[in-house]
Amino acid sequence: MNVAEQIADICHREGVRLVSGVMGGSATNIVRALDAIPGRKAIYMRQERVAIDACDGYARITGDPGVAFTDAGPGAANAMCGIVNSWGDSVPVLLFAPIHFRFEVFAQRFTKELPVTDVFGPVSKWTAKLYDPSQVETVMRNAFTALRAPRSGPVVIGLPRDLAKMPAAPSAYRPVPRRPRAGGAESDVEAAVKMLGAAARPFLYVGAGVLTSGASEELRELAELLSLPVATTLNAKSVFPETHPLALGIGGYAHATYSTLQADQVAQEADVVLAIACGFKRDATKEPVAASTKLIQVDVDPGALNSVYPADLTVLGDAKTVLRQMIDAARSSLPASRLRPKPEVAARLAELRARWWDLSRPMLTSTKRPIDPFRVTWEFSRLVDHDRTVVLHDAGGTRGYICQHYEATTPGGFVGYGVQSAMGWSLGAAMGVKAARPDRLVVAFIGDEAFCETAMDIESSVASETPILVVLLNNRAASLAMLERMSGERGFNPTLGPLRWGGGGDLCAVARALGADATRVDDPEQIRPALERAVRTVQGGRTSVVEFVTSRAPHIVSGLWGKKASGGGG
């Protein structure tokens, strides 16, 4: 066994099931070794950052890291965009970044070696460089410990080419235990439950850490026990069934970019807010809250507590464990009258949801041309089985068109992201999700600019037999906006020439040339037939792209009820 084979054996022992990357001479030994892992799914990509995206999507849906590989130097550097994205959302991804030779970081041979730990260190959970076979066991154990930390992130290991083929040192490697689940202090948990029990208008605000900890059932049990309305961040969408009578959809504290009307209303009126695993990012904290509102903050990361808003009570601990503690404490310490269902709460939320849908209906059912992108969401939502579908969004306005009205019903039924928001993420991430959930219909909603960033990896989906549905919303937004800024005229610049609405090349022809089925739609009455055909194609085992020629409709619906919403973050 050489060092590369030892590393692959450790990955197998740790349960690695997805391998993705771009080959190169310096990666030969590690790629051959990873390829020999029993039961692994391998997706060979055309771009390194898409390989990271695939591992990222896989990790978001499973909680387990995928393993990515690149060639040395520029190949590893090309992975940076994906690593930054995973780092922003604390997603576990393991990257092996080959190095030509162990001791040539500052020597000049073919090129200077990329200083892997220096480059990736600021945007990784942990980085290391191997120099000797005796280090392998320790480095890999530290890597998987970091990957399974309560708050995880990407890990990057520099693997020299000459070391990879050296004989391995003796080892008796034992897998790292699964993530630790520390509970909150009993006094803090009891105090939190008493605050909720005394609240007249409670509000439960949930972040992606609840998904990561696998706490969906505990979340639902607590919400039902105390009649708590539940809003989620974009990244946490799907952790609570959005068809539930207590569901508010996406919300913020007190207003998020993509807040629903009902989430806004309940948040603004709340007297006690329970925030669990929320980072209070800019796009989820757009407006201040009343000074009289009491905030209970639960997080596994001590650095997240009181980071934006000072909390009246903080609980440090794993979301799943703390939620279970709160359920037990509520049952043992609150009066029975507080634990009875409150039908008046569900009735009021139903009224707010009805108003939300009434305000949205003109967009959802629009017959205008170019197509209103919300009409695509509406037709898609009525077509698919939400319990057996996984939806991903991409960067920019495209996320707004799908995340606000598509109702996620099961944990992992919607995969959101948002801190760094790399354009084109959804294509690779959808492949990673499909690798993890081959029995699900996996759908990536993506804009034309983002599609063009990563479109060549449509071929990767085809070649690896990882069929996904790509819903391409083409409004030529970036090009038209750029031309307006340059010339002051819509759609024309004397240097760049005329640009038609929905023009700029035949993207469907590109998709077909790469082996996918592809259809272009510009008639709103053909949306559903095109989607039906595409779904059948994907279920038959072939990747399908449906391109819709859409308008540049506002993607933030909260403007319908007078909110001053701006920006497009997640």
Q: Keywords, please?
A:
Rossmann fold; 3 domains; six-stranded parallel β-sheet; disordered C terminus
CATH topology of the largest domain: Rossmann fold
Report Rg: 24 Å
Classified by CATH, the class of the largest domain is Alpha Beta
Q: What is the CATH superfamily of the largest domain?
A: Thiamin diphosphate (ThDP)-binding fold, Pyr/PP domains
Helix content: 25-40%
Roughly how many Å apart are the termini? 46 Å
Structural class: alpha/beta
Which shape, going by the Cα principal axes? globular
Question: How many discrete domains?
Answer: 3
Strand order across the largest sheet = 2-1-3-4-6-5
Number of helices: 23
Contiguous runs where pLDDT drops below 50 for at least 5 residues: 491-499, 563-570
β-sheet strand percentage: 15-25%
Mean pLDDT, nearest integer?
A: 91
Sheet with most strands: 6 strands, parallel
Q: Per CATH, which architecture of the largest domain? A: 3-Layer(aba) Sandwich
- Number of DSSP E strands: 20
Q: In words, what does this structure look like?
A:
This protein folds into three domains: 3-164, Thiamin diphosphate (ThDP)-binding fold, Pyr/PP domains (Rossmann fold); 186-351, TPP-binding domain (Rossmann fold), CATH 3.40.50; 365-561, Rossmann fold, CATH 3.40.50.970. The longest helix is centred in the middle third of the chain and has 22 residues, at 343-364. It is α/β, with parallel strands linked by helices and 570 residues long. Helix 3 packs across helix 18 (425-436), helix 11 (216-226) runs parallel beside helix 13 (319-333) and helix 16 (373-383) packs across helix 23. The two termini are 46 Å apart.
